[in-house]
Amino acid sequence: MNQARAYVDTDAPSLRPMREADLDAVMAIEQRAYPFPWTRGIFRDCLQANYAMWVVERADGALLGYGVLSIAVGEAHVLNLCSAPGHERQGLGRRMLLALLKIARGHGAQRVFLEVRPSNLRAIALYEQNGFNEIGRRPRYYPAPDNGREDAIVMAMELLADE
User: Fold this and answer.
1) Which of 115, 134, 141, 150 is catalytic?
2) How far is the C-alpha of 135 from the C-alpha of 127, rounded, in Å?
């Protein structure tokens, strides 16, 4: 009798909670990925506030991305979701997003919100493919080059208990 074995890729990146010791690597990604990055203090404050903060880690310990989620009173908010430059289009962002949604659901959140720049077409596509819909705009929400401002698209999705 031939028994099939499940293939397990031991080199596949894994997800784990972010730690303070990760902040150097997280900041290196954040500063390469965004023209207006979060500060180390923002990440530290989120850690101290016990936000759901997860990293995608390669088997050799290198961080490839991260996500930050706040949860309160039946709602969750994706505050930051980032794949390291050079590691886009590998499914890391989707994997992190789905993990954050699972965490939100596990904490009783009924809906999830996020803001995204209209210029970030890949992120908008990711969010739409995973059930988010545009519900509004925040005018001049994000800093932009030359002291400008860019609107934010506000997106949301309802979390169903049986998903």
Assistant:
1) 115
2) 13
